[in-house]
Amino acid sequence: MNRALGGAAALVLLFLFLPxxxxxxxxxxxxxxxxxxxxxSAMFVTLASGLVALAIDVALGVPLAWVLAxxxxxxxxxxxxxxxxxxxLMPPLVIGLVLAYIxxxxxxxxxxxxxxxxxxxxxxxxxxxxxxxxxxxxxxxVRTIPRSLEEDVWVLGKSPADTxxxxxxxxxxxGFAVAAAMAWARIVGAFGxxxxxxxxxxxLPVAIWxxxxxxxxxxxxxxxxxxxxxxxxxxxxxxxxASRVERLR
Length: 249
Hints:
The protein is an all-alpha fold. 81% of the residues lie in helices and 0% in strands. It is globular and about 65 Å long. The mean pLDDT is 85. α7 runs antiparallel to α8 (160-189), α8 runs antiparallel to α12 (233-248) and α10 (204-215) packs antiparallel against α11 (217-231). It has a single domain (31-248), classed as Orthogonal Bundle (MetI-like fold), CATH 1.10.3720.10.
């Protein structure tokens, strides 16, 4: 029985790490793809737009998760939960079409802004795809914090802002770090919405698609390895920090 479970676990691990192995097999293209026009620019665009989108996710997601977990009535929790789960479950390509209609020249808002094929449009698409991941993860983590900790601080006459700063934040930052890691992975890998809203400037997922169309699969896999290199360090570091904090408690 133990051997069967061990064999099954080994097969699962092999299956999960197979994509990484295939990418490493094409590591010879890792630097070669940099000579193609636009690829280096796509990396900088991915990093710049990703950091801006992540900052927006944190700025909007932290207070929203706290309000939903601590202040919102059950009805508003259900309303917000539905509002967040719709973009989470909606096909990314459909999200892109909707956003392109809203911020493109086909709508009154788009006539004023026209964010299609702009850096701001790319950030908007990335935020729309990633914010639900951040909020749901943070919301669930804040809900696990006992209310008694806040009530003890309120007895001392502290304001809600002080309660969040000195009680909730030190405890919940581990959950926020995990939420940021999930949001970052989603941001960097966003393809469906950005390819419709912001084909230019191209982020790496769109650049990989262009590379596939123009030069074939091997070069696209080499560029995909760059996407892994950019997307993995931040989530790995944040999760490592979160695990370390948990062990020190």
